[in-house]
Write the structure tokens for this entry.
Amino acid sequence: MLKVGLLGAGRIGRVHAINIAAHARSQLVAVSDVNEDAVQSLASAHGAKASTSEAILSDASIDAVLIATSTDTHSDLIERATAAGKRVLCEKPVDLSLERAQRCLSAASKTGIPVMIGFNRRFDPNFAAIKASLKAGEVGKPELLSITSFDPAPPPVSYVKVSGGLFRDMMIHDFDMANFLMGAAPQKVHAAGTSIVDPEIGKAGDVDTAVVTLTYADGRIAVIKNSRRAVYGYDQRVELLGSEGLLSAGNVLENTVSKSTSKGVVSAKPELFFLERYMRAYAAEWDAFVASVLDGAEVPVTLEDGVAALVLAEAATESARSGKSVLLEV
Amino acid sequence: MLKVGLLGAGRIGRVHAINIAAHARSQLVAVSDVNEDAVQSLASAHGAKASTSEAILSDASIDAVLIATSTDTHSDLIERATAAGKRVLCEKPVDLSLERAQRCLSAASKTGIPVMIGFNRRFDPNFAAIKASLKAGEVGKPELLSITSFDPAPPPVSYVKVSGGLFRDMMIHDFDMANFLMGAAPQKVHAAGTSIVDPEIGKAGDVDTAVVTLTYADGRIAVIKNSRRAVYGYDQRVELLGSEGLLSAGNVLENTVSKSTSKGVVSAKPELFFLERYMRAYAAEWDAFVASVLDGAEVPVTLEDGVAALVLAEAATESARSGKSVLLEV
Amino acid sequence: MLKVGLLGAGRIGRVHAINIAAHARSQLVAVSDVNEDAVQSLASAHGAKASTSEAILSDASIDAVLIATSTDTHSDLIERATAAGKRVLCEKPVDLSLERAQRCLSAASKTGIPVMIGFNRRFDPNFAAIKASLKAGEVGKPELLSITSFDPAPPPVSYVKVSGGLFRDMMIHDFDMANFLMGAAPQKVHAAGTSIVDPEIGKAGDVDTAVVTLTYADGRIAVIKNSRRAVYGYDQRVELLGSEGLLSAGNVLENTVSKSTSKGVVSAKPELFFLERYMRAYAAEWDAFVASVLDGAEVPVTLEDGVAALVLAEAATESARSGKSVLLEV
Amino acid sequence: MLKVGLLGAGRIGRVHAINIAAHARSQLVAVSDVNEDAVQSLASAHGAKASTSEAILSDASIDAVLIATSTDTHSDLIERATAAGKRVLCEKPVDLSLERAQRCLSAASKTGIPVMIGFNRRFDPNFAAIKASLKAGEVGKPELLSITSFDPAPPPVSYVKVSGGLFRDMMIHDFDMANFLMGAAPQKVHAAGTSIVDPEIGKAGDVDTAVVTLTYADGRIAVIKNSRRAVYGYDQRVELLGSEGLLSAGNVLENTVSKSTSKGVVSAKPELFFLERYMRAYAAEWDAFVASVLDGAEVPVTLEDGVAALVLAEAATESARSGKSVLLEV
């Protein structure tokens, strides 16, 4: 039984709490958060202790921590947790600063304690099936990857200002998905971005719609499309053209009902947002973390993976700014 | 080059005229109809002769006739055409009277001239693919067949009164489809019918909605659903459950566009009616007729098939009336 | 907080245990089963007491019981539980004997304690959406209902012999679905059944493939298709044709991935069986039960509903045997 | 009745011949080709005269010519035909040389005779429905366009060498589609190309897989993906994200049949290639041309449109070569 401390009792912390508590081999022991009310209510709902991050990190009976605090605390908490010998699952992104994330990686590596980063989409049954099919060679050699990732609605401009920008905050998931499916880092990054959804986002120095092209040393190409607004729901799709076929993962819909009338055939929208769409992914992610700790299974998403996604986000941000492609060392 | 006389220049006659004229190995030579205007305009559009059925049947240069006149003339024209040595493609149904159709079959058989009946749906690429898959054993042994066949809107009650009733006029297609896919006649017919769409149809002695269950000597079952009204278009589907899988043929849609908005995902309706849906089927049907005449290929839908479908229509009419199943000699 | 005793720790009991434990307003207090090992492991997994049905029914601190024991004990346990003042959620079917179920209903009614029957499919988000759309009048007046319900594989013949037969054991769900969606009992039942999947099932006096036609006093028709074998998974679909459109609920697939190769486009199969397909339905069912007890919400599936489905199962069994339709008093 | 001369009796010429002959308001009068056999057989099949381009262009009884000869003759024939006062429908592309096409435009403009360019995809019912929906404002303001266009198999390298390259030969269709749907020319073109399908194509100086990003003055973005190889068929899709929704046009499949077995659910592939996929588009294109001549309807695809697509092809070719974006004057 894995004894777990949860750092962070916000929206995503509550999702993790349910999965930790429901898992047959893990137990939620303690919860911390800067918000006292949040921590009390979440702890009591799962029979855990309301605590502090300090107390959790120094509690020898706790095996692992899940870091679901605000992004600016991730690097610091990863360093402290690994120094304390705790296994770590940390929410994405590692950090908004690539340099800080790299220092964190360096520090954590020295402890020898593996850190897992919460790129939940790798555990989505649909994207995981794409990866499995690829690995099995079912469509031959991959050649052209397309990732579509649209949020239902843009965040407030106040959030945009502190978010690190679309490439670090939103497309970071897609950069990791590209790394995951392509199994290599690209050589070159080209980004086109615009603030056509909300000009205020542009005034805040960010984009809300972007297309990024990644080219790889062996000639493969990937293209990522992001928009902050898809009024019909959370649009999350992946397509991969290979030498022997195409793999395509569609959206998860709210239900399977269609209604045919004189006006057309109406079916359900995609699940509205990430909690609904990735509910199964979060549970599978937690299961993989438990297996990596208790069974010695390979850590499926490493801190290095977290840094690698940030490298692409940094390059895309630069490319969108300069209008020129950015070359990466590979 | 097959020289063809077309008897009947109404809606369906015009469809056949185009296919006869467009086919590389057939030529539309003459057209007849009781309506003088119709025959003139159709003949001139295709460079054919406006003629009469008498003249066509006695013209030695004409190899084949396509009978697209009103149903009550079919048996008579089949008998006269085969007696004149013409190959025949006759629109369905052979006759509204089973007894008359049987006499026609008897007379035509004596001439030794094969007659093809225009059950166009056998030539629909979707249903034909189901048949081919079945024959190839791709879903094992067939066990349970379902046919859904809904018209977009009920005909006028005046038509209903002379139509022979839903089972002879509309479900006749589905009886033939069952015979085609099951490759045998059923042992027993049970029909449930209602005039829920339009009570006036009920007053005229007919039904507008019906479910027929066919049971076969070897234990297979087929179920046919008909409605005179599907406001979203012409709904034409087939499903066949076999020991190793399910074959399913869906509707042909007006286009492949979907529109996702905050209200749902809207896609196109099925093609509105039989001319649109079965356009490709009519062309393939004509091609098969030409091949049967010019190449000696097997006649794909025989006059016997036309009578066999009528036998089921008669039994279903009786079952819906009496509320009891009707046993057939097989 | 609703304190709940679970009677039955088998496959379905374990599903309910998870939902009871996970629900914010219910607590699993005690579990009983004839199998000692099953009861011990299930109880400990959820921090509940291993107990006996006697002890649970006489424990005043327990508010409600969930009956998930073998069918032959249902009527007895419902009577004892309601006599003891416990609210009840009982798995389907109420009983294999219609007469026994009616006596149970009579006894339970006298206690004034409402009993809910576990027709889980009413809580499936897809079928529930059909019901909601119907209620909202989105397709006008219902006219023709079709229910397709195929199991992935037939049960052992030993099970078939004690199951009460396909109509009571399997189609009972579909009878309830028809009652649920049509909002009335039919006037007439016609059943065609065969043992084409496994002749041994026929020798045991049962069928494995059946088509049932229900006709209603107002002219509506429903048709239910069952097969014990669909090698591609659990096939659970509903279609309802109304005066203004068609509602259609499709299968829930294992994932949304398609693979296009030179051989065709392959997509995922339906979820294999009822635990996967109806996972969300079982959770929603439990939530509705909790609301009916704690909030006084209407009991969504009553003991009367359980008896009504049995009436249809009885009639269909009789019709399949006699080959004649069975009239019901409505 | 429009009297038409067809210049070119190759594969695409034969498609046009059928549409000209089948159209109620046009007549195929004469056909020319460098291949004597081709011209004889095509002419006789449609009752037209085997002729030469010279004779056709100087025949005063001919109203219009359809140019379906090899690309290097297009500009010259357009100039001669318009000088002779003939209305023209010319296959795409206008020319491989942008400079030559611009001279052709200049010469043709002076004659005042409108020229239509055969960008057939604008007439595909699916893409046309996207355009109509956009125009009707059904998804609000367009923001992000995606075009997927994959051929089933790469052409021979010998063809590649004289083709003008992927951007002029293949993506030219997609550039026109972008111009058609966006209603404006982009400001900037970025192309990434690779010869991952066939290295011999790379050695011949061309690419076989490419992603082009177009950015517009008002902040809109379009992305076009091309591959010379999709083993599952001709993959032709368009998606447009707008402020109020998403429009998506999928592939046209060979049939609507699906087969569910223990291995998955298999459905039909996209129509194999452009003749099958765009059969309806070619007929609609011809109908639009006839209407533009006989009814004075607006020419739906002008010579200017043909040149505008070439401008993008030129820019993309340059961008793929240099690795830098190309700015356009708009």
